[in-house]
Amino acid sequence: xxxxxxxxxxxxxxxxxxxxSLLHQDSEFTICDVNFGxxxxxxxxxxFDIVLVCTDxxxxxxVALKFESVNQILFIEKPLSFSSEDSRRLADHxxxxxxxxxxxxxxxxxxxxxxKASQGIRSASIVSMSHLPSWRPGTNHLDSxxxxxxxxxxxxxxxxxxxxxVASIFGLPEKVMISxxxxxxxxxRDAPDTCSxxxxxxDKTFTFTLCYGSxxxxxxxxxxxxxxxxxxxxxxxxxxxxxxxxxWKHILEHGxxxxxxxxxxxxxxxxx
Length: 272
Prior knowledge:
Blueprint: E1 2-6, H1 10-22, E2 28-32, H2 40-43, E3 48-53, H3 60-66, E4 70-77, H4 84-87, E5 99-102, H5 109-117, E6 121-131, H6 155-158, H7 161-170, E7 175-181, E8 194-200, E9 205-211, E10 213-225, E11 230-234, H8 237-242, H9 244-254, H10 260-269
Parallel strand pairs: 1-2, 1-3, 3-4, 4-5, 6-9
Antiparallel strand pairs: 6-10, 7-8, 8-9, 10-11
Helix pairs in contact: 1-9
């Protein structure tokens, strides 16, 4: 198995460790990064079984387009792109049907609990809050893609896990209202740090609260069903991270599941 990982930050390294444990020991890994390893232009014409795009959001599509020969999986870290328009440049990619966009919450017990309880839900509050300056110890968070619009940053795209798992269980909404703003002084350079969003369906309404500013990690789904029963589902950071390995096990066994067309549709409604 020949694998190329483009972008070797914390997420790229995590995928590398997981794949080393899951693939045959004779598998070959090529690392491409701006700081070390091969240059993308030096290897992109090679034939790989698996290609992972783990670069800054702004370059996801540009990097994916360089790799035309992918035998099995073209894995692109979430989000697919910074916009639906940009993502459509992949519509004619030879490996379009092999694209899987990484959203590991789908592979956690948290997700399965919500899916099991989904029938009859009429109202839900979806929350994801954490502290951007604490994400990458030893680095200046203001230099990260998360903090900069020109790198594809912002809380709504960074926390696209929440819209992704809700859409995968309940489908896309009929109406969307979004307030996506920079409110805190020092969390980002110019990217939105706080997002409030409402999704309206024919028979239910969901609200989202996404924020970079909470020093206490909080991720949950609180709902009320048609008979008035309320439920709270929570996921901590350890469970969130635990979804990476089962995601890869599923992809390697069944092929891509979070496919290109679905991700383009989700990006489009997040731009309304």
